[in-house]
Amino acid sequence: MNNSLDYFRRRIGGVGVDGIILDSPFDHHTQMRLCIARDIPEPDTNGFADALPQWIMRSVVRSKGKALVLFTSTALMRSVAQQLEDEFSQRGIKLLVQGFDQQRHELLQEFKRDIHSVLFGLDSFWQGVDVPGEALEHVIITRLPFAVPNHPLIEAKLETITQRGGNSFMEYTLPEAVLKFRQGVGRLLRSQSDTGMVTILDSRVLKKRYGKIFLSSIPHCPAEILTAEGESIFVETEDW
Predict the structure, then answer these.
(1) Which of 119, 194, 210, 225 is most buried by a 10 A CB count?
(2) Are 52 and 80 spatial neighbours (Cβ–Cβ below 8 Å)?
């Protein structure tokens, strides 16, 4: 997280050991591009759910399908899928959605077979998905993956941090979200010949102070800021 192993050390009780961060075998500067939607409403506002379908479609069109779209909410994923089903069909793009008729492994096999298809996935698709080649050239992250603190174990951890005077958001919620975010981004490049883009449809990554921690926790690569008018503003992630 944020180019440091400190959080992981604390989590495993390894505070007294040395750590080393090794370079990736991938050349992210030439293999990956980061795209961030600047003008989409923030996820906790009323306009986000209304705006998300067209931002997703706009993103999918850029890569002509070949996209894994990662969600954090089942209800929102199904709503977006229902709204976009006809448009995907009209464009000749097959839409695969987790949680309907097919099992997870069947969805992945179909996604690999139909190289222009689009797969909508939830928690289990943020990690452990390996689709090298042209079937996956675009990862779309609809929302920063902050966990909802309704699990008893998570609640207990947050309470423990608060009781000792710590900041539960900075010490647990944010680091866990960043690690999951890194996993999601990591679905894109699975071989040294892969290329593609990662699109983030959560404007908080630009507008909130903690957004820089997310951005600095993934490899540097060319980036573009997407506006509501369809313009692209090119930047370098080193600037963050």
Answers:
(1) 119
(2) yes
At 168, the amino acid letter reads S
Query: DSSP letter string over the chain?
Result: -TT--HHHHHHHT-TTS----PPPSS-HHHHEEEEEESSSPPTTSTHHHHHHHHHHHHHHHHHTS-EEEE-S-HHHHHHHHHHHHHHHHHTT--EEETTSSS-HHHHHHHHHHSTT-EEEE-GGGSSS----STT--EEEE-S--PPPTTSHHHHHHHHHHHHTT--HIIIIIHHHHHHHHHHHHTTS--STT--EEEEE--THHHHSTTHHHHHHTS---EEEEEPTTS-EEEEEGGG-
pTM: 0.94
Radius of gyration over every alpha carbon of the chain, rounded to an integer in angstroms: 18
Q: What are φ and ψ of residue 148, in 5° steps?
A: -80, 125
Q: Which two tokens stand for residue 3?
A: 């180019």
Task: Give the per-residue pLDDT at 138.
Answer: 98
Residue 14 near residue 175 (C-beta atoms within 8 A): no
Query: What average pLDDT does the structure give for the chain?
Result: 93
The residue to which tokens 């370079």 are assigned: 23
N-terminal to C-terminal alpha carbon distance within the chain: 15
Parallel/antiparallel/unpaired status of strands 118-121 and 95-97: parallel
Indicate if the pLDDT at residue 2 is higher than 90. Answer: no
Answer for the pair 202, 142: CB distance below 8 angstroms, yes or no. yes
pLDDT per position as a tens digit, 24-66: 899 999 999 999 999 999 999 989 999 999 999 999 999 999 9
